[in-house]
Amino acid sequence: MKKCHHCGEVWAERGSPGTREDCLECGYPLHVCANCKFYDGMALEWCREPMARSEKPHDPKKSTSCSWFVFLDPEEERIDSEKSKSARMALEELCKPPPKA
Questions:
Q1: 42 located within any domain
Q2: Average pLDDT over residues 70-74
Q3: Is residue 11 part of a domain?
């Protein structure tokens, strides 16, 4: 479920919020780096999307007009992570050397 970074209120709409949309519960803007799937507080300039770095605001919790914004859905991220882990394990199994006779 997509949620407000500030209060955790669920975003029930499909897709991403517009650049001027605020959370109905707390009034904080929703189109912010902290709500984006590319946001990473540890990454260079907070963003894992290289093309978006030129649009980086001064504060990741303030509204942005970044055209690379994709509303983070933690459930989708978890599923993607599980698929990646499963694929990596299958690849490692294929790449194992044959048992010695």
A1: yes
A2: 83
A3: yes
- Please tell me the pTM assigned to this model: 0.65
Question: What are the tokens at 62?
Answer: 């303030």
Domain assignment present for 46: yes
SS (H, E, C) the chain: CCECCCCCCECCCCCCCCCCCECCCCCCECCEHHHECCECCCCHHHECCHHHHHHCCCCCCCECCCCCCCECCHHHHHHHHHHHHHHHHHHHHHHCCCCCC
Amino acid at 65: S
CB of 25 within 8 A of CB of 4?
yes
| Residue 101: half-sphere exposure toward Cβ, Cα within 13 Å | 0
